[in-house]
Design a protein that fits this description.
about 400 residues, alpha/beta, Protein-Tyrosine Phosphatase, Chain A
């Protein structure tokens, strides 16, 4: 009875909120439903035949989750996931409200959920986790967590709740962790590591050697299984190789996959929303890239082609400490046509210091987005932080 009441009120709230704010407002229904029935999420997940898979880490969560979901669905499984990337408790409950029936039951075989590191550490202790995928630990989100050691401890809690742990063996912060459950490794090939190795959180300890089940090459994933090495080609850009390696490693632990299906899926995979994705808005083709921290900002900048114009950068409210913008090298860029978002002035100052010409500064995200679409050119390219992304995505009608 409690579940029916919680779901009914939650679904009604979700409907009303979306009438007022199309494409947004999932947090409030999730908060209310969870208050009415704190076990709504755990009961919904416990009823799934193939259990729960969680994906967590400093970066790469959304892409890894999306790729794993696609691989499982291609093999005929019905997957419950938080496709909106709402990865904290109320967001996960909101996903149940959206996809579940009036009793909070899901018409799915398996759940693959992206977990925020902090919320996930708490949730993992309440849920039965079949498999945990741990992506990495970066030191550039200190406005969210006090210290990389705190993130390591949180990911250890998540992994300790799982029956199998799939982790990034190139990150010594993760390789050093000890689990009672079996550990499956994924990483980069030796060749890829020379050019794509990430700057993980500084760690002066040893780097334990863990065998790689999958390794990402420039345009393929190597799968080491049963004494053989098999190669699966992929169409995704190099910066997604490690996330794809994680997804392929995970799918092999969950089911006995078909090589032909994996091969077909990997050749057709598209980037997750805002990960170098092309969208059409009001007849204008726009390349959109999400930047979440100095590392991802720098990687996106390094990949930009200088003739991609017009160009807009947006820094939203989620950049609580704009000082990290000063660790990014913008000197490659000649001009940014529009700088937008809550922290637009901070970003514009940083760009000016590097000699970058700034066309106009517009703090309001919607106004900046409209002005951007009105600019002439055929290479509209937008780099934005998560808060700005959500606002622009909703304003452009791209929100799910």
């Amino acid at each position: 009875m409690r579940a029916i009441l919680a779901v009914s009120i939650g679904k009604l709230l979700r409907f009303l909120v979306r009438l007022v704010r199309p494409g947004g407002g999932s947090a409030l229904p999730g908060v209310v439903a969870n208050k009415l029935d704190p076990k709504l999420l755990s009961n919904a997940l416990a009823a799934l035949d193939h259990g729960l898979v969680v994906v967590s880490g400093s970066a790469g969560k959304s892409s890894t989750t999306s790729y794993l979901v696609t691989l499982l669905e291609a093999h005929g499984l019905r997957v419950f996931t938080n496709s909106s990337t709402a990865n904290i408790r109320q967001g996960l409950v909101a996903a149940v409200l959206k996809q579940g029936n009036w009793r909070g039951r899901l018409d799915s075989d398996i759940a693959v959920l992206e977990f925020d590191e902090g919320h996930g550490a708490v949730l993992a202790g309440e849920l039965e986790v079949r498999l945990a995928v741990l992506t990495n630990v970066y030191s550039d989100q200190l406005d969210r967590f006090n210290d990389p050691d705190d993130v390591i401890a949180m990911l250890k809690q998540i992994g300790s709740a799982a029956k199998v742990v799939v982790l990034n063996i190139d990150d010594k912060n993760l390789a050093q962790l000890e689990f009672t459950a079996p550990v499956i490794g994924f990483g980069l090939s030796a060749e890829m590591a020379k050019t794509r190795r990430a700057n993980y959180a500084l760690n002066f300890g040893p780097h334990p050697a863990i065998d790689a089940f999958t390794q990402a090459g420039k345009d393929s994933i190597m799968v080491h299984s049963e004494g053989e090495t098999k190669y699966v080609t992929t169409s995704l850009p190099e910066h997604q190789a490690l996330n794809l390696s994680a997804a392929v490693a995970a799918v092999h632990q969950l089911i006995k996959p078909s090589e032909s299906i994996i091969s077909a899926v990997l050749k057709e995979l598209k980037p997750v929303f805002a990960r170098n994705e092309k969208v059409e808005v009001s007849g204008v083709d726009v390349v959109i890239r999400l930047v979440q921290n100095p590392t991802s900002f720098q990687l996106n900048l390094d990949e930009l082609v200088l003739d991609q114009t017009p160009l807009m950068f947006m820094a939203g409210r989620d950049i609580h400490d704009p000082s990290w913008l000063w660790t990014v090298d913008f000197s490659k860029i000649k001009k940014v046509d529009i700088v937008g978002g809550f922290n637009a002035n901070e970003l514009a100052l940083r760009l000016a210091f590097d000699g970058v010409e700034v066309g106009v500064v517009i703090e309001d995200a919607a106004a900046a987005a409209d002005s951007f679409l009105a600019l002439p050119g055929t290479g509209h390219t937008l780099l934005f932080s998560a808060d700005a992304m959500r606002r622009v995505r909703r304003h452009w009608g791209l929100a799910k």
